Amino acid sequence: MTTAPPVAKPTRLHVPGRRQQVAALSRERLMLVMLLFLAAILGIVLKIMYLTFTGQSFDDRAAGLTSLPLRPDIVDRNGETLARTIDAWSIGVHADRLLTRPEDLAPQLAVLMPEKTADQYLALLKSRKHFIYLRRRAMPELVEAVNALGEPGMAFAREPERLYPQAELAAHVLGWTNLDGTGVTGMEKLLDKRMTDPKYAGKPVTLSIDSRVQAAVEKELAQAMLNFQARGATGIVLDVHSGEVIALTSLPSFNPNDPGRSPPETRFNQAITGVYELGSTFKPITIAAAMDAGVVTSLSKRYDATAPLKVGKFSIRDDHPTKRWLNVPEMLVHSSNIVTARIADELGKDRLNGMFMRLGFGEPVSIELAGRGRPIQPVFWARTTTMTAGYGHGIAVTPMHLAKAYAALMNGGIMHPVTLLKREPGAIVPGTRVISPQVSYRLRQFTRMVVLEGTGKQANAPGLRVGGKTGTAEKASQGGYARKSLVSTFAGVFPVDDPKYAIVMMLDEPKGTAETYGYATAGWTAAPVVRKVVARIGPLLGIIPDARKDIPLEDIKPLIWHPKEGEE
Amino acid sequence: MNSALPKAERGRPRVLRPVAHKQRLGRADRTPLGRWFWEIDRVLVMLVLVLVAIGLVSVAAASPASAQRYSDLTHIIAPLHYFWRQVIWLMIGLPLMFMTSLLPKDRARRIAMYAGIFCLLMMFAIPLFGSEANGARRWINLAGFQFQPSEFLKPAYVVAMAWLLSLRNLDRTLPVMRISAVVTAMIAVLLMLQPDFGQTVIFAGIWMVLMMLAGISGRLIGVMIGLGVTAIVSAYAFYSVARTRINAFLFGEGDDYQVQAAHNAITNGGFFGTGPGGGEAKFRLPEAHTDYIYSVIGEEFGLMSCIAVVLLYAAIVVRVFVRLLDEEDDFVLLASAGLATQFGLQAVINIAVNVGLAPSKGMTLPFISYGGSSMIAVSAGFGLLLAFTRRNPAAKRSPYIVTRT
Question: Is the Cβ of B311 closer than 8 Å to some Cβ of chain A?
């Protein structure tokens, strides 16, 4: 601030030329202020330009806001999309803002959206509520049609929607989400936490499922179910070395895009929830236990199957009585209950049940899905209990239990935990030895013989070396067994010379047809499905059909006695 | 023309009479209105009228959003309520602007200074009699009308400060700068009591510009900038409203609903806008018709319109400043520059808030935002600006050019 000049007076200081100086300074300052102002304007214009290029429209943001972050996709092991989140439409109405008379609008809505009657729409429209959803997950055509009614009180909004582009494919594995985008069942439920974790936003979950294999399994099983008028069907394909589930299906299935529309029984997952007495498919397990325990000393050792085995008041009989003495390979080829019972008896309760426990039959299968069935075990092991359990009666497990056990018995004797999530290639898979590699090798030979010469002939996919065992069990009903209600199963591996995949196919209550001469047993129903499925999926999985390749059977074949022509 | 003639002359053969040469508002018109027409900055008037037109359309666009927001079950506001009210305010404001611009400079100055003293008294009265809204006590009820004294004080303050500072060149011993600093500080304290941080910034900004133009030394400018920074920092430290707003702006912490809502609205329409009535995000704006009307413009008329509006404000301010470059009257220079600064600064701050360059603060967009106090005060202020920038065109004309015969 200017201080008073030291010279006393004059009070009015008027320096000539000062005015001009001040004026020049003012001009300078005017320019400066103007430039500052223009700089601010420039900053604003630049910011607007920035907003032009970065701004999102309201719709995009609304979609993002309602379910932050967007639920990631679920893909199969090859990256095919099984579940994804898309932008869909919803239709609502502001009943308090209608311009059309509700009496006129309601019938029109009833025509376009027939899930409600005109009267119901009228009641909604007259409710004067601020907002009512009329349809969520609406098709664009419907939105257009409703919009064309010209009622400004209708509200259309984009909402994220979970879409399962393959519809029913692997529905039981995937499960579904509710309208709020929360997983309700299946992997959607299991993965809910990960799906809503921003850390994993945009990173798809890779399942172990191969959708091509899954599709083949579903197609063939559905065909068989139709053919044999079965109540249900289950199929599992398992990687024997990694425990990855390549395919898992339970029919009838549902469409996860609209689960409410399918009947409730379709949501029952027979593969992991349902427990069944799986019958003769247990015989290789009993043999494995016996051989591993040293009960079966020689493959040529014969057991009496000339007549039904009577134990107390029970009588164990064969479905295809041979009425002679059978060795172990023959027992499997002819699926003899009597011989299995005799071996199980020799083995004893502890060692048989020990094998069951090692194979995990004492608890639900550890897999990612919820609703895993707990096996039903004998409460009291009488002598007969051991004998019947040897051929799969009196003990009920899920098909997944069986697939897992077969994978372990056939892959060299090591059991791996099963999973529906893809394992990294080369990842170390935990495993426990259940039988010796030698016994595993013998089982592969035996099951191959079953397919070549026994009950499983119809499972023999050319060149794909299927080995396995059929199992036909009568369903337990009212304290006894229903002779007409069968559960027909085939469990096996392929290729037996170098096992890669275990496969279990099960038909629930198939009926015989003219083609099967009225038979509904596994050899006539489940085995053909396995042949068809393996023929389709083998090449997909990199197993080349080769008629020259097989497991060496030279030491087993001579053990099988064939009746001469015309005999029997 | 014909119908304007006296009834008796209608139908008669037209006779050219001497008065016909002296057209209304012609250069020969020497009435006050005629002189006004030739002396006024017509480009400036035109720019303001364009702005007013834009403002009216914008209020029409924003009105349904605010009407919905402030309606409740018992009290429903018609969608165009704010628009029609704005038309009424304009019908008061625009005549006021033209009437003010008709005033001779001296009388304009005198009236402004009386008005300033009145407003200042009102400011003192606010803590006692003021009415409160949104946690701030800024309004006063006068004869059934609610008005905001600080809005009216702004132009009056500019005129008073300009007059005070212009005295400096007449008598260098007058402590004009100290007086102006004291007055400004007093106003700032009154404003912060309300509290009204935005207006305080405006007053401080105007004062700084006036001081710069009045020729204070560069060192003092530096000191003032330092004081300004200190003021903002201390506002942040001791004034909770400012702190939460600045925090929300800088770190996105706390409640950044307003900032986010403005961003959503201004970007929703993209460059070309959703079209009039097509905006959706505007319904989520707080104060769509006042503080955030610029975002409504952005949504419905596009960011291109935002750029146009900001350039219009720039044009008005630049027009005034450029014309002042050869102004010789200190008072006119300071008053005009101050009024233009007030107008421009308010626009820049409001727009900066809307585009997310500044933390939110209650500030209207001159001539565009809805509001009675704001519209009338801005009109009066602009009328003063027009009055001060009036110039005799003959004074600048080269004496050597011969007009066509």
Answer: yes
